[in-house]
Amino acid sequence: QLQLVESGGGLVQPGGSLRLSCAASGFTLNYSVIGWFRQAPGKEREGVSYISRSGASTNYADSVKGRFTISKDNAKNTVYLQMNSLKPEDTAIYYCAASDMDYELDYVSIDGYDYWGQGTQVTVSS
Predict the structure, then answer these.
(1) CA distance 20 to 8
(2) Which residues 6+ apart lie within 8 Å of 30 measured at CB?
(3) What is the full per-residue pLDDT of the chain (126 aa) written as tens digits?
(4) HSE (CB half, 13 Å, CA atoms) of 87?
(5) Exposed / middle / buried, residue 51 (Cβ in 10 Å: 0-12, 13-18, 19+)
(6) What is 59-120 written as a DSSP string?
(7) Are the beta carbons of 27 and 53 closer than 8 angstroms?
(8) Residue 25's closest CA among 98, 121, 108?
């Protein structure tokens, strides 16, 4: 069964940190661009961060630049999103997605993903 499973979400105070994981099963992430997306209540799903097939190239939304770090461990078939200095506006359900890709790209539009995880809730509140 081909699937992505996110974990690591939870409740954290403003200024705190969380690390999200996105583990793939049934396929390898070695040939995929991975994106992290989030969706807050009443808002559209938005891209947060992206990482290329090799993990050498990354891309971030302006709203998280300098606070979030995406990384990839191809040996573990897992992608991570380290989130520091969290703000209440980071509260959302976070999803990871994989796009089968022949090229070393660090961005794929939201419509271009082949697999999506079920999401993990991140709540930033005091």
Answers:
(1) 5
(2) 53, 74
(3) 889 999 999 999 999 999 999 999 998 998 999 999 999 999 999 999 999 999 999 999 999 999 999 999 989 999 999 999 999 999 999 999 999 988 888 889 999 999 999 999 999 999
(4) 7
(5) buried
(6) EE-TTTTTTEEEEEETTTTEEEEEE-S--GGG-EEEEEEEEE-SS--S---GGG-SEE---E
(7) no
(8) 98
